[in-house]
């Protein structure tokens, strides 16, 4: 049992490490070979590399508070450690391999973006000018851009009539993709992943009902 736990721990944490390496390697390639806001077509018009710096959360959201990014980075550090511990506890419980894979992907993505936020402000000097400290205020490098559909709303469409639209507009990175795939995988296959847990919960509920029935019978007999 201990050998199996050790092997699985190594295997799934290694998957997380692979995602971290892929994420950081892609970001360094973009940093050293592209100018900020430069765009390169990879597969026609619908897949491009677009070099952006994200000062906040996913999709460019951010807090205007002076220490908002610092708080966000510290939160990410705590979440990263929590995810790592949760993955290890799932491995010890012999959870479904699919669930372990999804959690490994989420962990790898979380660590990838935490590295940017924690260190890039110092080592890549990309912290915002108004950042109170370069530590924990680094900007995340994004580059994956899939503008799948671009056009213009007809004039008769309420509110947006005549405006141009772009589907899919967010620019993201491999770490974001890893987290997204992990979360979506859990949502899609949650019944299979948590089947054992749900069966145990049902058995426990049935046992509790039987115990209550026995108590009621004893109470009536008295």
Structural notes for this entry:
By secondary structure, the protein is of the alpha+beta class. It has two domains: 2-188, no CATH class; 195-222. Helices cover 59% and strands 13% of the residues. The protein has helices at residues 2-33, 68-92, 97-123, 174-188, 190-193, 195-221, and strands spanning 39-43, 47-54, 140-145, 149-152, 164-167, 171-172. Strand 1 and strand 2 form a beta hairpin. Helix 1 (2-33) packs parallel to helix 3 (97-123). The radius of gyration is 24 Å and the shape is globular.
Characteristic terms for this protein:
single chain, 222 residues, 2 domains, four-stranded antiparallel β-sheet, 6 strands, 59% helix
> What is the approximate shape?
globular
Q: Uncertain segments of ≥5 residues (pLDDT<50)?
A: none
The total strand number stands at 6
Q: Provide the gyration radius in Å.
A: 24 Å
What is the count of structural domains?
Answer: 2
Largest sheet, order of strands side by side?
1-2-3-6
Given helix and strand content, the structural type is alpha+beta
Q: How many helices in DSSP terms? A: 6
Calculate the terminal CA-CA distance, rounded to whole Å.
Answer: 49 Å
Helical fraction: 55-70%
Order of helices and strands: HEEHHEEEEHHH
Instruction: Determine the strand fraction and express it as a percent band.
Output: 5-15%
Average the pLDDT over all residues and give the rounded result.
85
Biggest sheet details:
4 strands, antiparallel
């Amino acid at each position: 049992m201990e050998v199996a736990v050790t092997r699985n721990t190594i295997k799934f944490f290694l998957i997380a490490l692979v995602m971290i390496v892929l994420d950081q390697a892609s970001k360094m390639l973009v940093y050293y070979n592209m100018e900020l806001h430069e765009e390169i077509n990879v597969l026609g018009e619908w897949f491009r590399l677009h070099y952006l710096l994200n000062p906040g959360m996913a999709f460019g959201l951010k807090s205007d508070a002076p220490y908002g990014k610092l708080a966000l980075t510290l939160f990410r550090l705590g979440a990263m450690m929590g995810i790592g511990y949760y993955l290890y506890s799932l491995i010890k419980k012999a959870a479904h391999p699919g669930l372990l894979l999804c959690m490994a992907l989420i962990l790898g993505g979380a660590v990838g973006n935490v590295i940017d936020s924690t260190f890039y402000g110092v080592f890549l000097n990309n912290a915002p000018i108004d950042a109170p400290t370069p530590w924990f205020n680094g900007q995340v490098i994004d580059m994956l851009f899939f503008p799948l559909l671009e056009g213009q709303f007809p004039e008769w469409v309420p509110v947006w009539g005549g405006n141009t639209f772009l589907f899919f507009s967010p620019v993201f990175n491999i770490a974001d993709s890893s987290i997204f795939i992990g979360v979506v995988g859990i949502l899609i296959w949650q019944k299979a992943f948590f089947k054992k847990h749900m069966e145990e919960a049902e058995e426990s509920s049935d046992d509790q009902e039987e115990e209550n029935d026995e108590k009621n019978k004893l109470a009536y007999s008295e």
